Every structure is written in C-alpha cells, then in structure tokens.
Amino acid sequence: MKADSGGKASGGRGVPQTAAQQAAAVKEPPKVPVAAKSATAKAAKPAAEAPPPPPLEPESKEEKKAAKARAKQEKKEAKARAKAEKAERKKSAKSDNRRMPAGGPKQFLILHAEKIVLTVGGLLAMTLIFLSFGRLELNPDQTPEDLNKNVDVVKAKLASTAFDDYMFPPSNFDLNIRRWKTPLATAGFSFPASWDPLLVPPQKRGDPEIYPVEDPLAIAGDDAVYVKVRRAAAGAAPAPAHPPAGAAHAAPAHAGGAAPPAHRGGPNLLRLPPEMKLGDFVLPALDPNEKNPKPRFTEGRRWVTVVAVLPSARQRVEYDHQFGNAFEYLQWRDHDPLYSEVRIKRLEVSPGTPDSALDWSKAKVLSWNEQVQLNNAEKSTWYDVAPEVVPPEFICDDSKRLPNKFRAAGMGVLTKPLAPLVTRSWHQWAIHPRLLDLMLPPEPPASDQDAEPAGDDKPVDMAPLKPAGDVVGPFDDPKPAVAPPKKPADGAKPPEKKARAPKAPPKRTVDYQLVRVFDYTVEPGKHYRYQLQLAVRNPNYVDPQSPPELQIKLRNLKRPESRKEEWIFSPWSAATNEVAIPSGSNLLAVAIATTEAGEEVAKVFVRILNFDTGELSAGAMTLRRGELASGTVKAFTLKPLDRAVSPPADTRVQTDLTLVDFHRIGKVPGSLASPCEMLFVDSSGNTVVQSSVQDELQASIFQRIIEGAGPMGAGAEPMGKNDDAGALFKAGGQ
Q1: 228, 263, 646, 698, 732 from 703: Cα distances, Å
Q2: Residue 217: pLDDT band by 50, 70, 90 thresholds?
Q3: Do 726 and 712 touch, CB atoms closer than 8 A?
Q4: Cα separation of 243 and 618, whole Å?
Q5: CA 209/CA 319 separation, integer angstroms
C-alpha cells in the first residue's frame, strides 16, 4: 500500500512504479509547454526539497512489461506534443513577419533598405548591359574613306560658320578666378547718411533744390564739316555723292614699278601726302568693294558753344539731405538726380552792352522739343560723330536712366556730341577752362614691385595664370609669379620679352561735370549772350499711365501735389560773356618776326571759308601795329575731299580788324617758332584776341602747304609748265 501510494504520489498514476521506470523518468523527463514551465518549476521545487522515497520492492515481469509499454506511450505522446508546439511557434513567427515592425515605415526601411538597393541596382545594371549590347552594331557600309569624307564636311561647315561676338563671348577664366578670390569692397554698398537714422525718425519727402550750372562760357567758331547730307537739301533726296578718293580716283598700276602720277582733281591741283593730318577727325577710306558707300560732302558750319560746370557732388548732398532718411527711399531714384535736358535762352545784344541794361524778357527761349529737333536735324547731316575730347567721368549722360519715350527723343544728354571738323580741333570749344586741371590723369601710386620680401614673406614661385604679354586686368596681381624660363635649343634665338601693358587707371569719382550745348542757328556779324537752365525728373512724380505694379505709391510727401509734377527746374544761370559770330573770313595768329630794319611784325593767315562747298582759302599776310588787315594776298584753296591744293592766286581780302598789339608768350619746339598772342579791334570797337597756341593745328596745316612741303611729296607733278611749286607757295602776300 505504501508502494502504491508512493507510486501514485511520485508518478501521478494508480500503477506502482518500478526502479526501471523511475530511472527512465529521470533519464528523459516529459516535455511540457513553455507557458507551463514556470508553474511546473514552482510545483517541482517543494518536491525536490522533499526526502527521497524509500526503495521499492522488486517488480514482476508483467509489471516491467506494462511499465515499458507505458513509458513508450508517454514518449510517443511527448513527441507529439513537441511537434505540435513547434508548429504553433512557426505559425506565430510567420504571422509576426507579416505585420509591420513596431517602429513603422522607418524601422521597415532600416531592416530592408539593403535588399531594396541591391534589387534596384541589379535591375539597372541588367538594363544597361542589355542596352550596351544593342548599341554595338556598326554599319558595314561605312568605310574609313567615307568616315574621313564626313569629317571633312563637318570641318568645312564649322570653318564657314560665323557667330556673332555677342552670342558666344570668350570667358576669361583667369580674371574670373581672381574676381572670386578678391573680397568685395563694402564701401560701395554703404550710403553715408547726414545724420544717425537710429536717433532721427523717418521724415516726409521734400522737394529738393536744383542748383544751376556754374561759370557759363560762350565761344564762337566756324570750320568745314564732313556731312553725308547737305543741310540745304536735308528734306530732299541726297545729291550725288562725291567720287570716292580711294575707289574712283585710284590710279592703275604701272609697269616697271614706277610710281603712278599724282591725283589731279582739276587743272593744276596737287594731292597732299597721305600722312598729312588735317584735323582731329580722320575721314575713313572707302572700300572699293562696298556696294552702297555712305555719301560724303563738306559744308561750312558756324556755331556757338556754351560750356558750363555742373555741381554734381553738391547736388547729391542736397538729395541726401531731402531723401536720406525719408520714407520709401530708393537709391536709384533718390541718390543721384536724373537730368533730362538743358534749356537755352539766347539774347541778341549790341556790342558792349552792360549787364544792367540787358532785357532778358526779349530773349529767345528754346523749348525742349525745339532744341531736340534742331540737334537731331543737325546731327543727322553729319558723316559721323567726332571722337570725344573729354574723359568719360566728366560727361553727363543720363539718357539710359530715362524712360524709353524720352530716350528716343534724345533727352538726358547734357554733354552734346561733337561734329566731324575738317581742319580744326574741338579742344578750344569743347572743354571748360575750369575743368582742365581736373581732367589731368591721376598720378599712378608708388609701386613697390621691385622690393623683394625677405624671410618667410617671400612668395613661392608658381605657374603663370595667363601667358606673358596679356593685358593686366583690374583684378590681376601687380607682379604675378612666373615659372622659370625655358632654355632655348642649340642655335635657336632666345624668345623676345613682351612688355606688359600698364594697368588701366581706376575710374574717378568727380565733383563736377561738363555741360556743353551748341547753337548752330547763329547769324554772322551778330553778338549774343546766353543763359542755361537745368531740367530734372521729379523723384516724387507718380506716372498715372504706368501699370499699377510699376507705379511707386509715394504717400509721405511734405507737398502732396508734387506727385503730379513730372519735371523740376533750376534757376536760370548767370549770363555768359558776349560772343561775336565770325563772317567766314578771320585771322589766324602765326608768329612774330623781325625785319632787316629791326622792326617786329606779326605774321598772320587770312582764312576764308566757303560755307556751300566747305573749301578753305588761305594766304599769308604781314601786319604792323595799327595796320588794317586788308589787301591783296596770294591765297591757295584747300579741297578736303580731294586732299588737293590749288596754286596761289591773287585774292582781295577785306576785314574790319586792326592790329593793336602783340607779344610773345615763350618759345617751344614745334612748327611755330614763336608762340604769341595778338590783339585786334573791329569796326564796332570790340577787341579780339588771337593766340597762336589755339590756332596752331590749322595754322600748321597752312604753313606746311605754303612752304611747299605738302605738294612736293613723292609722285607730285609741278603745277605749271616752268613753275616750281615750292617757290610759288613760298611767295605769299605782303
């Protein structure tokens, strides 16, 4: 009973257990589910601590056989339970894989990103391999000769293709690299305020004061001008062009290398040498292959130039005072005034009228439209515009800042262009004397290029950034390091060193600019005085016709009605000096000579301008103090288009100028032996001062012609049968 009760207690069954059964149970314990392990372990813990059961009595064979069958059955059941548990675990793991990880899409990508990348990369590689096999096909009809022909055709097309320069401008990579390495100068981006904007609150926009021009000066002159349309027939069809000197008058080549005969534009005309310069403007030679060459003529012009000084810096300070701390400030509009035009007031006066007796209410005022029409009509007749004699920073041209409708009308230019004069230079008319010293180029700063740094400051030699001989740009180093020169091969000449071009001087900021206008409607023998007025586009103006998005809504104005005023004006300037208009016959001071009797006399040229043809006649004359410039002289005629000179002929000259006095102003090397000034007085009592320095260009041309240096050049022929050109030209008149 004890064994049975012990067997039941130990084995949990009603059949008593033998020793073999106990050993088998100890050797292979039954497998239990994972969930029941904890409960089993808790229940088994007290049993393990209990004392071992007493030894059992030996069992019979039947009992052993039954126990063995029972153990086999239990082993089979345990194996089935283990298999069922394994299938259950596999099923639960499979359902867990189908669900998204707890981390969401981010965790899913972390776990499977490598697989996705490998799959996409493999597909892409396979696609590229497939496409590459498809492109390996060659056309068996293309032989090397055919390919060479195709290459030649492409090269010919490239060689014959012309591209505009502005379409594909070459890029200067070295200059761009230096620009990128050069730090930006912050001074140009700052705006100096007249007061601290943090302390002074923004103010309303006021009306700036426009300052008038300073020191107006009127200068009269006349000369021949190269034109393409005669002014008398500006509204009609152009007259037949002058025969081009380089095409129709070109002489055929002669056998034996002999020089061709001189061009003879008429009887006894001699050509001037090609190196002889007539004036600042050089008429370009005509291309004989040009189908429709521009017509060219010469006509006489007389004018009055009115030059003045524009106080640019002072006007900018006034704008800064009005708008520097104002509401709705815009630098492009409120920093610099936008000049639109110069108005001209001309008053015809009697010689010697004092300022107090001038009645400017009778003066003629040229409106904007009249002035623009006159300037455009005059400029449209010119062959071309003469080169400017004033540095660009002194020229006032705001036309690019004006709206298109005003720009097309020619407004915004306060420094008017120059006509192509034939025998004169614009320097004595086109520049204000007050600006001469300011127009001198600035002295270059002291350079320490030759100073070699010592120690660690010495730069390391580097390869040149641009080839030797290139122009140094504004961002180039003053002395770039260069690679060591290569030694020339045996018998080869060493390479010539190319001099570097000097750096371009930086553009200066000037305080004054030039105002220059012309009056081409003057009449000979009259006297005039002028006044100038500046017109500026109102920075407070709002254009009602512009689109709403382009209108500047100015609300904070001291005077709200100023938004409707498009232009604001300066006061009229002071009156210019009195200027007399030449009649076409004037005198040029040449030199002071001493006769055999020891008396000093003045040598002058009498110059006569034909305004219809633009031809100039000149002859030499000697005057004593108190002598009237009249008489008969041997005068030649210069034909500018032919560059030819007629022989001297007796010409009657009648002027109203009397020589009062003359004096030397020094002696300098040049064509004129004694620079001098001469004082004349006309029949009205007006004094006229002629300077050989101002007349030097035109006087030197006439001097050279009279002395025979021009016509006696290579290939020239004598003017008469037994005449000597030099002797005739030296004859002159007394």
Answers
A1: 29, 22, 15, 9, 11
A2: very high
A3: yes
A4: 25
A5: 8
Q: What is the pLDDT of residues 443-463, one digit of tens each?
A: 655 554 444 444 444 433 333
Nearest to 205 by CA among 564, 555, 561: 555
DSSP code, position 256: G
Longest dimension (CA), the chain: 184
Token representation of residue 623: 């005057």
**Residue 45 main-chain phi, psi, to 5 deg:** -65, -45
Question: What is the C-alpha end-to-end distance of the chain, expressed in Å?
Answer: 180
Q: How far apart are CA 512 and CA 439, in angstroms?
A: 10
Tell me the two tokens of residue 13.
């069954």
Give the single-character DSSP code of 392. Answer: G
The residues, ordered by sequence, that sit 6+ positions from 357 with a Cβ below 8 Å of its Cβ are: none
Q: Phi, psi (5° rounding) for residue 346?
A: -115, 130
What values do phi and psi take at 502, rounded to 5?
Answer: -70, 155
Beta bridge partner(s), residue 309: 214, 514
For residue 184, give both structure tokens.
Answer: 């930006």
> Distance between CA 541 and CA 325 in Å, rounded?
18
Phi, psi (degrees; rounded to nearest 5) at 20: -65, -40
For residue 550, which amino acid is it? Answer: L
**Tokens for 465?**
């950034």
Q: 693: closest CA among 677, 706, 679, 669?
A: 677
Cα 332 to the chain's mean position, in Å? 18
> Which DSSP symbol is given to 326?
B
Structure tokens at 190: 């700052």
How many CB atoms are closer than 10 A to CB 463? Answer: 8
Residues 43-102: pLDDT tens digits? 444 444 555 655 555 667 888 888 888 898 999 899 999 999 988 888 877 766 555 555
Which DSSP state fits 693?
A: T
Go through the chain and tell me how many residues it has.
734
Report the 3 state secondary structure along 65-101.
Answer: HHHHHHHHHHHHHHHHHHHHHHHHHHHHHHHHHHCCC
Report, as an integer, the average pLDDT of 649-669: 82
Locus of tokens 């002598």: 627
Q: What is the DSSP string of 434-502?
A: GGTTTTSPPPPPP--SSPPP-GGGSPPP---SS-TTPPP-TTS-SS---PPPPPPPTTPPPPPPPPPPP
Q: Which residues make beta-bridge pairs with 631? A: 653
pTM reported for the whole predicted model: 0.59
- Residue 506 CB-density burial (10 A; 0-12 exposed, 13-18 middle, 19+ buried): exposed
Q: How far apart are the C-alpha atoms of 238 and 249, rounded to whole Å?
A: 22
CB 557, CB 204: distance < 8 Å: yes
Question: In angstroms, rounded to a whole number, what is the distance separating the alpha carbons of residues 581 and 587?
Answer: 14
Instruction: State the Cα–Cα distance between residues 448 and 116, nearest whole angstrom.
Output: 66
Q: What is the pLDDT of residues 510-563, one digit of tens each?
A: 899 999 999 999 998 899 999 999 999 998 888 887 777 666 677 788 888 888
Residue 216 has phi, psi (to 5 degrees) of: -65, 145
